[in-house]
Design brief:
This protein is mostly beta strands. It has no helices and 3 strands.
Amino acid sequence: LSYLAYFWSSTEYSSTRARSIDLYYSNAYISFDYYYEEYGFSVRCVKD
C-alpha cells in the first residue's frame, strides 16, 4: 500500500508534461509538480 497518490490537474506544462497534485497520506501534505503525461496518473472529474 502506498503512502502517496498522484492526480493530474488540467494545467499543461508543455506538450509532453502536465501538472500533478501529489497527496501524501502519512502527514496530510499536498504538493504540486510536473510529470510526463505517459506516467498514467489518476484523474478525478469534477463538474464545474
